[in-house]
Design goal:
Blueprint (H helix, E strand, L loop, with lengths): L1 E6 L2 E8 L2 E8 L8 H12 L16 H7 L8 E2 H9 L5 H9 L12 E2 L12 H10 L4 E2 L2 E2 L8
Parallel strand pairs: 4-5
Antiparallel strand pairs: 1-2, 2-3, 6-7
Amino acid sequence: MQYCIHFHKILLNITMENNVILRISFARECNFQDNTYLKRAVEEYWKGNRGMLKYKLPPYTKFETVFKKVQEIPFSKVSSYGSIAKAVFGNKKYARLIGAAMKNNPLPIIIPCHRVIRSNGNIGGFSGGVDIKIKLLKLEGIELKNGYIKKEYFTNF
């Protein structure tokens, strides 16, 4: 089943099966139905209340370890592609692989790929568009200056 919800003026296209979220993507417009319960569940998840929202990664994904590490980035914090690569693979040279994983993230918001940025503080790219990444970061209280994030917002593994 396809749903479209407004999340802080961001349109989310959500694919569900048996009340479990399988995929989330960002949309510019939607023709799917709204779901009040789902909207509330996403809002609660965003606030840290995980109980209402049920989701599932595809049965097998080569990026599963990366996705789990990204879920450890605290609200209102960011981490770099290199820091995550070092934590997962033992070497920050795998930063591009982290970028590929973020590009293929089936559950943005739940797997907060918007919190993954470049080590110099530049926000980098985003599958939903840089404008949406900036909105999500600002929703978490992260300040940007000329597209860069201060080191005080960084968390390392």
